[in-house]
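Here is one chain, start to finish.
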Amino acid sequence: MIKRMIQMILSAMILLVPLSAMAQDFGLDINLGVKKKIVKGLNISAEFELRTQDMSSALERIDAGLGISYKPIDYFKVGAGYHFIDKYKPKHETKKGNIVDDYWSPRHRAYADVTGILPIENFEISLRERYQFTYRSETSAKKWDSDGDAKDDEIIKSKNDHILRSRVQAQYNIKPIKLAPYFSLEMYNDLAESFSIDKIRILAGLEYTLKKHHVLDLFYRYTAGIADPDDEVHLLGIGYEFKF
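Its structure:
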């Protein structure tokens, strides 16, 4: 079983990495987080994220969240959390030829997940299933026709998304130097569309733990937009988490 999981991960790398060369955009991701241990196995956390788009020339998203996780045994973990997200949409042309001004789209997101963990010497293989609900608030933006004449504002209606995120991850812990390279493959399944795949995300990164309290994370992420080609993007990220 373990060999088959590892083979699946390696196969995904071989198949998906060439696709990343066709990505439409490149961005940067900056993550800051803090995690507090309450009792053994129980942690609360807070995080803040900034993400860029359009070849890193514009801010794409601001994300602030709170979470809680509980690990009753070494092989199993549950978690839940809430995020407030403000996503930027640049000025663009509609299918009807109108020009819509840039705007920010606020979203509320809640999630709950379960993770199975399988340690194999210095390796750790995990499978996480996460249900994610997102509510996008209604907003509006100024609109013009192709001649530059003002029209009624564009109304971006509210929307609910129900997504099941399935992620398999492999991490190798180099204990003497507290370095941990990892790789993950994640599929976004749209529950409102009969489990159709919304997008696929691959991620490769490197974690470094300094004096137990400080964790640095460097990673590369490629998202393949299945339902929406505009979701396709290369992304380089850096993260810092303080544990206490």
